[in-house]
Write a structure and sequence with these properties.
single chain; mainly alpha; 84 residues
Protein backbone atom coordinates (compact mmCIF):
# COMPACT_ATOMS: atom_id res chain seq x y z
CA UNK A 1 0.00 0.00 0.00
CA UNK A 2 1.06 3.57 -0.59
CA UNK A 3 1.62 5.68 2.50
CA UNK A 4 4.08 8.33 3.67
CA UNK A 5 7.19 6.96 5.41
CA UNK A 6 7.19 9.64 8.08
CA UNK A 7 4.97 12.58 8.92
CA UNK A 8 5.59 15.45 11.31
CA UNK A 9 2.20 15.11 13.01
CA UNK A 10 0.17 11.99 13.71
CA UNK A 11 -3.14 13.38 12.45
CA UNK A 12 -3.74 15.72 9.55
CA UNK A 13 -6.46 18.33 9.21
CA UNK A 14 -9.21 17.39 6.79
CA UNK A 15 -9.08 20.52 4.64
CA UNK A 16 -11.58 21.01 1.83
CA UNK A 17 -11.82 20.51 -1.89
CA UNK A 18 -12.23 23.59 -4.03
CA UNK A 19 -13.55 22.15 -7.28
CA UNK A 20 -11.69 21.40 -10.49
CA UNK A 21 -8.09 22.53 -11.00
CA UNK A 22 -7.17 24.71 -13.96
CA UNK A 23 -3.82 23.11 -14.73
CA UNK A 24 -2.27 19.68 -14.58
CA UNK A 25 -4.51 18.17 -17.24
CA UNK A 26 -1.84 17.64 -19.90
CA UNK A 27 -0.40 14.15 -20.27
CA UNK A 28 3.31 14.09 -19.38
CA UNK A 29 4.27 10.40 -19.54
CA UNK A 30 2.93 7.76 -21.91
CA UNK A 31 0.12 7.83 -24.44
CA UNK A 32 -2.99 7.23 -22.30
CA UNK A 33 -4.17 8.69 -19.01
CA UNK A 34 -6.76 8.20 -16.30
CA UNK A 35 -8.63 11.36 -15.28
CA UNK A 36 -11.10 12.00 -12.45
CA UNK A 37 -14.31 13.60 -13.68
CA UNK A 38 -15.42 14.97 -10.32
CA UNK A 39 -13.56 16.11 -7.20
CA UNK A 40 -13.18 13.47 -4.47
CA UNK A 41 -10.53 12.14 -2.09
CA UNK A 42 -8.61 9.23 -3.60
CA UNK A 43 -7.47 6.56 -1.17
CA UNK A 44 -4.38 4.39 -1.43
CA UNK A 45 -6.61 1.34 -2.01
CA UNK A 46 -8.28 3.01 -4.99
CA UNK A 47 -4.90 3.91 -6.49
CA UNK A 48 -3.63 0.36 -6.00
CA UNK A 49 -6.81 -1.14 -7.52
CA UNK A 50 -6.49 1.12 -10.59
CA UNK A 51 -2.80 0.22 -10.97
CA UNK A 52 -3.52 -3.52 -10.78
CA UNK A 53 -6.34 -3.26 -13.29
CA UNK A 54 -4.25 -1.25 -15.77
CA UNK A 55 -1.21 -3.53 -15.50
CA UNK A 56 -3.41 -6.62 -15.89
CA UNK A 57 -4.99 -5.20 -19.03
CA UNK A 58 -1.68 -4.00 -20.53
CA UNK A 59 0.03 -7.31 -19.67
CA UNK A 60 3.77 -7.03 -20.29
CA UNK A 61 3.51 -4.58 -23.15
CA UNK A 62 3.11 -1.39 -21.15
CA UNK A 63 4.56 0.75 -18.41
CA UNK A 64 2.46 2.48 -15.75
CA UNK A 65 3.31 5.80 -14.09
CA UNK A 66 1.39 6.83 -10.99
CA UNK A 67 1.65 10.56 -10.39
CA UNK A 68 -0.64 10.78 -7.37
CA UNK A 69 0.28 10.08 -3.77
CA UNK A 70 -2.17 9.52 -0.88
CA UNK A 71 -0.61 11.83 1.71
CA UNK A 72 -3.91 12.39 3.54
CA UNK A 73 -3.76 9.90 6.39
CA UNK A 74 -6.72 8.43 8.21
CA UNK A 75 -10.05 7.21 7.03
CA UNK A 76 -13.44 6.29 8.36
CA UNK A 77 -12.10 4.33 11.32
CA UNK A 78 -13.48 1.00 12.42
CA UNK A 79 -16.88 -0.13 11.20
CA UNK A 80 -19.46 0.01 13.97
CA UNK A 81 -17.26 1.97 16.38
CA UNK A 82 -18.96 4.52 18.62
CA UNK A 83 -18.06 8.12 17.79
CA UNK A 84 -16.50 10.04 20.68
Amino acid sequence: MLMPKKTKYRKQQKGRMRGVSKGGTALVFGEYGLKALEPAWVTNRQIEAARRSITRHAKRGGKVWIRIFPDKLGGRGQAGADPL
